[in-house]
């Protein structure tokens, strides 16, 4: 049974299924869908489903319906080979052992999954917050733009303010271009270093 924060066990909720296939939650006095029941299962709520007319417990068939619906939505958790094996156990003398084995296996899997989730959260805690990813993306874009300017220094020179005219002519222009290239290389190194 599901436990609440206070440690007390929550009561088992009764869901009544009517002839028109509608499901009625007696705890909330409202009609629910199979999707609602799936959410209740995920939240750990305990419930039974009874036929409203006969009172027969039909929980197993309703839970099977939920699985069929979930499988139909594209998230296939049950491999075809597994389904064939289960069908093969119906009527088999060892078939009576299968439910206990599957239940035990799923409980063990759930415990391992909880431990694995905690380990992953601890491992990656604070490593990739969104603002850090955005900053890295901006730095990568700036790095890319500066690298493109380095490969085409004449385009960068056109976009930048023209160097002051000097009487020396071409050698001064080459010196100015070298200075711009060095400045761009320095900017690129700062970006790579994260500065």
Provide a short characterization of the protein structure:
This protein is an alpha+beta fold and 195 residues long.
Query: Order of strands across the biggest sheet?
Result: 3-2-1-4
Could you give the order of the helices and strands? EEEHEHHHHHH
Total of domains = 3
Percent of residues in beta strands = 5-15%
C-alpha end-to-end distance: 55 Å
Mean pLDDT: 79
Structural class: alpha+beta
Stretches where pLDDT falls below 50 for ≥5 residues?
1-6
Helix run count: 7
List keywords for this structure.
disordered N terminus; 8% strand; 195 residues; 4 strands; four-stranded mixed β-sheet; alpha+beta; 7 helices
How are the elements arranged and paired?
Blueprint lengths: L12 E5 L5 E3 L4 E3 L1 H10 L3 E5 L7 H14 L7 H10 L8 H27 L5 H22 L1 H7 L10 H23 L3
Parallel strand pairs: 1-4
Antiparallel strand pairs: 1-2, 2-3
């Amino acid at each position: 049974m599901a436990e609440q924060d206070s440690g007390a066990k929550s009561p088992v909720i009764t869901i009544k299924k009517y002839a028109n296939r509608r499901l009625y939650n007696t705890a909330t006095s409202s009609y629910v869908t199979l999707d609602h029941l799936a959410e209740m299962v995920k939240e750990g709520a305990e419930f039974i489903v009874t036929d409203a007319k006969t009172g027969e417990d039909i929980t197993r068939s309703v839970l099977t319906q939920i699985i069929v619906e979930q499988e139909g939505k594209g998230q296939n958790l049950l491999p075809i080979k597994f389904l064939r094996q289960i069908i093969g156990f119906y009527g088999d003398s060892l078939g009576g052992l299968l439910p206990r084995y599957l239940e035990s296996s799923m409980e063990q899997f759930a415990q391992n999954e909880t431990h694995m989730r905690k380990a992953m959260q601890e491992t990656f805690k604070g490593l990739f917050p969104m603002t850090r990813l955005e900053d890295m993306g901006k730095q990568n874009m700036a790095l890319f733009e500066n690298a493109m300017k380095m490969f085409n220094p004449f385009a960068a020179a056109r976009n930048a303010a023209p160097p002051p005219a000097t009487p020396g002519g071409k050698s001064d222009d080459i010196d100015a271009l070298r200075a711009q290239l060095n400045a761009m290389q320095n900017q690129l190194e700062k970006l790579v270093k994260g500065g």
